[in-house]
Amino acid sequence: MTSKEKATEEPVEKEQEEEQEIQDLEEDAVVEEEKELDPLEELQQQLEKKDQELAEQKGDFLREKADLENFRKRLVKDKEDAVQFANQRLLKELIQVNDNLDRALDASNTSLETFKEGVEMIQKQFATFLKNQKVEAIEALGKPFDPNLHEVMTQQESADHDENTVIQEYSKGYTLNGRILQSAKVVIAKKPAKKKKKAEESAKEEK
């Protein structure tokens, strides 16, 4: 290569190097700018992601709230139905007893004996119904007075019974599953007045 050609190439290479340096500087400036913008963009993305998650959570909450409200309404309806129809089976059995009473009353040319037999059958049917409902009669006659089971209507003097013994029932008492459903209304015995006192009273009357 001649000296002339070499002199010509050197300015060209120098220009190319300068252009490359300028290009490198520009690229570095863009990179620096991008580096400065990246945190903002990242923060914006994080905010958008959080907004999306919040929207999803809000949607889930609203769906769960709607499901809970529907469940509450079903519970209220089921409770109302339970209150309205809780005694449905019990009343159905009572209707059958009432039907038999109607038949007995409507029967024509029935003798007293036949009518009595019909009533006894209905009474047995009703007793079976009570037993199925876990209702049991309280045994009171001849038993000592128990304030938990009996309600005293009056006292009656009796020499044949111990004091506070039930000697008569005005109405039967019943328990339901062992709990008092109705107390027995009873008459209980009390000691008779002393004979001496009666004798004194008689003597006074004679005078």
Topology:
Layout: H1 3-85, H2 88-106, H3 112-132, E1 135-137, E2 150-157, E3 166-171, E4 174-176, E5 179-182, E6 184-190, H4 195-206
Helix pairs in contact: 2-3
Question: What this model shows, in words?
Answer:
- The chain is an alpha+beta fold.
- It folds into three domains: 1-86; 87-133; 137-207, Head domain of nucleotide exchange factor GrpE (Nucleotide Exchange Factor Grpe, Chain A, domain 2, Roll).
- It is built from four helices and six strands; from the N terminus they run αααββββββα.
- A three-stranded antiparallel beta sheet has the order 1-4-5. It has a three-stranded mixed beta sheet with strand order 2-6-3, with no helix packed on it.
- Strand 4 and strand 5 (179-182) form a beta hairpin.
- Helix 2 (88-106) runs antiparallel to helix 3.
- The longest helix is centred in the first third of the chain and has 83 residues, at 3-85.
